[in-house]
Amino acid sequence: MAESKSKSTHELTDTLNEPKVNALREWMIYSVIFTGLILLLCGRLIYLALLSDVTGICILILVLFVCALARNAWDVSYIDRQRSLAHQQVKELIKSNKISAAFLKNSEPSILRDHLLNLNAIAKKDPMVSQENLVVLMQSKLNARLRLTELASSMLVTLGLVGTIVGLIGSVGGISVVVEAVGSDRDQLMSGMRETLGGMGTAFYTTLLGALFGGIVLRILSSVVNSHADSLIAYIAELAEVYMVPTLRRSSRKRTKNGNLEIDVSEAVS
């Protein structure tokens, strides 16, 4: 019997392949490519925008972009960490041949551990354990964590539009000065022209920066992270469905009235 369980455990461990996906590396490739292209094609315009914008909106857009980029990198590294933890924890469960109360309480917090806790709670009450609703909830929680970058992307585009309005208002004020100074005061005329051109520069530059950093770079990187988030949820759901749910269903039927949490993982192998 012991040899049979040991053989089953080895079979399970052999079928558990370590994920080869590296979300952070892929994210870095995309970020370097698109940020590099934008700096190559529009670097001079970005430099002029930062120099000529007296409203500070261009600088604000750039600062928010850097903060959002850092947050996006943090999110993608979190996804990599959770994928690695899921693989490691399932492997530990297979080797120990049981889902113990000690593991559920003392193992490193992770999405997989929380998922197993919920599945175990369901198994206490329903022998036909299903994870469909839990997977949807798990996806919603992860999406809520990743939503900040999408919000930052929209904010940058909106700030670009705000800069356009502010710049046009400044241009209108400069035009008024020019009209009043025509034929009378040359210095005032030149001052009005500078104010008009400065306002137009602000309008165009802020729109450009908001579109480049918010509408292009952050949206692309956010899509990359969301894609890996979906992949992570699918991976955790697959691990649970293949290695945990069948065992929980069998153990739930055999569970005694004392509510023992010790569940033999090797029972999942027929």
Automatic annotation (TrEMBL):
Transmembrane segments: 27-48, 54-74, 155-179, 199-221
Compartments where located: Cell membrane; Membrane
Lineage of the organism: Bacteria, Pseudomonadati, Planctomycetota, Planctomycetia, Planctomycetales
The protein, known as: MotA/TolQ/ExbB proton channel domain-containing protein
Mode of membrane association: Multi-pass membrane protein
Entry's Gene Ontology BP terms: protein transport
Family: Belongs to the exbB/tolQ family.
InterPro entries: MotA_ExbB_proton_chnl (IPR002898)
Organism: Gimesia alba
Record key words, sorted: Cell membrane, Membrane, Protein transport, Transmembrane, Transmembrane helix, Transport
Sequence ranges assigned to domain MotA/TolQ/ExbB proton channel in this UniProt record: 126-236
GO CC aspect terms: plasma membrane
